[in-house]
Amino acid sequence: MRIDLHTHTNFSDGTDRPSELINKALSQGITTLALTDHDTIGGWDEAREWLRPGLDLVLGAEISCQTQDGISVHMLGLLFDPSYLPLQEVLAQTRDNRVGRMAKIIARMNEAGIEISLEEVHAQLSDGATLGRPHLADALVAKGLAKSRDEVFADWLANSSPFYIPHYSPTPEEVIQLIKKAGGVSIIAHPLASLRGRVVDLESFDSYIAAGLDGIEVKHRDQTPEQQQLLFDIAAKANLARTGSSDYHGTGKMNELGEFTTDPDQWEKLEAKASDRRVIRL
Fold it and tell me: DSSP letters along 99-147, please?
């Protein structure tokens, strides 16, 4: 079994359509695939439509969170009931606030002499996609101001950049509890990926576990072997599921589909915690 529990499509900052992601997963021998676009379930219907025998589909979202001291945290919510309105309202509010945030980032860049417009950024989005910094990066590349997304993030859009502006996000504890009330399971994504900016203190896991955290994304390309071991130990001590995932974005990042996977016993442990059997299979 090959289980990849963290992927993106062009409904957020990936480049593949959900149909393309499904076809790639099938061709590469993935047996269980989670679709986890940022702050949206917009790609769910197309993924369902293109599902074929041999692949189990796990529907979810990667939900933006922020600690009280301003550290960005991403929480994977899987197998939740999409009709649970309080969770959908938080996702909608987060998406709405991304628009205002983008306008402020662009204004700062314009003041610094970097000519880019909100219209040029929106031109990089597919219909219904969640707006994010990668779309600004794509607009800068399309305009010839940079060569790649990676270059834009390194030079202009990292969390330490003067152009960085946070956006509204609930706390990790709030999101964990919302996912649980929606009948799903929560996994903290790449919590020690220091290249993305400040990371959570290890002591913070006590609060997340108390809120009902179900798993930790241990194996991820942005976490060193030493960091992965630290996370493995935290998960083992707290009896949390340990996952490995690609965080695939199509051509938007170097991450390869299925480059890290989750052990079947850990996936079974996670799935058993959902309130209903929501894995989709033909």
Answer: HHHHHHHHHHHHHTT----HHHHHTTPPTTPPP-HHHHHHHHHHTTS-S
CA pair distance 16, 35, nearest whole angstrom: 12
**Tens-digit pLDDT profile for residues 214-243:** 999 999 999 999 999 999 999 999 999 999
pLDDT at 68 over 90: no
What are the backbone angles phi and psi of residue 187, rounded to the nearest 5°? -135, 125
pLDDT tens-digit readout, 153-169: 889 988 788 998 877 78
Which one-letter amino acid corresponds to residue 82? P
* Contact between 136 and 121 (Cβ < 8 Å): yes
Its CATH class, for the domain covering 100-157, is mainly alpha
77 strand-pairing partners: 61, 186
> What are the respective helix, strand and coil percentages of the chain, to the nearest 5?
40, 15, 45
How many Å apart are CA 224 and CA 218, to the nearest integer? 10
Strands 3-4 and 72-78: unpaired
Per-residue pLDDT band for 196 (boundaries 50, 70, 90) equals: low
CATH 3.20.20.140 placement within the chain: 3-91+169-271
Which CATH code for domain 3-91+169-271?
Answer: 3.20.20.140
User: CA separation (Å) from 116 to 58, 101, 121, 129, 155?
Assistant: 37, 15, 8, 20, 15
Residues of the chain with CATH 1.10.150.650: 100-157
Residue 128 in this model has a pLDDT that exceeds 80: no
**For residue 151, what are its two tokens?**
């270059």
> How much is the pTM?
0.90
In this prediction, residue 71 carries a pLDDT of 87
